[in-house]
Amino acid sequence: MSAVVEMTAARRGGVRALWAGNPGAVVQRGLIAARSSSWAVVLSGFFEPVFYLASMGIGLGKLIGDVQTAQGASVSYAAFIAPALLAVSAMNGAIYDSTWNVFFKLNYGKLYEGMLATSLGPLDVALGEIIYALLRGLAYATGFMIIMQILGLNLAWTALLALPAVLLIAFGFASLGMAVTSYMKTFQQMDWINFVLLPMFLFSATFYPITVYPGWVQQIVMALPLWHGVELIRGLTTGILSVDMLWHVLYYVVMIAVGLVFTTKRLRALFLD
Q1: Is 65 left (phi over 0), alpha (psi -120 to 50) or beta?
Q2: What is the three-class DSSP state of 167?
Q3: H/E element holding 74?
Q4: N or C: which end of the chain has fewer CB within 10 A?
Q5: Element at 233 (helix H, strand E)
Q6: How far apart are CA 165 and CA 171, in angstroms?
């Protein structure tokens, strides 16, 4: 008991207050716990965008024909929505683990309280949980990328860069998702996450070009994180590259930094101060 008190006191200032350099322990704990999880639930997040691609990209795409990208190039409807669904797949995988799972561990399992009683700091816990969520997002996206390749929807060699881009997208959503979840106290509040994700999924130029909206609606959509991910992945899979893609990357870098800062401060405030 005295060792725990001394450790907590030592963390009240300096680098040790935040970081012990061992987020891998949190990731390892998550992987071990995942063995007892229902794989049907895990796989459901992967099949959702696959079903959208099959029903709309292949089915509805026969009626629509070619669609113009934001850069003015014409591609098949399936090739237009597939990269958007790839970004959605990464978002779903990252958000699931960084919100609902984190909420249970934080408010019911009391796991973080136990973790922070060890040598781990709040930044270790935050990074560990985010990396674990990122792995799930990457797994979803890799499987979906293989399906795109089989269907011939990767139109350029730059599609190989879509996987690193997917990691960036998953990292952004996981870090921000965990930051938001750390402030939630009831399951009813968690419903706000789906309330935000659903319209973002439907309106972020996922199924049709952003140019169909009035100008003021376009500005709102362009402020949403998923739109930046969709445009980044779409540019890579179609081979239509532009300097504007760097802004999409910067958007996620800022998103990651904000999420990590808020999550770390929140965990420290809850368990160490």
Answers
A1: left
A2: helix
A3: strand 74-76
A4: N
A5: helix 225-238
A6: 10
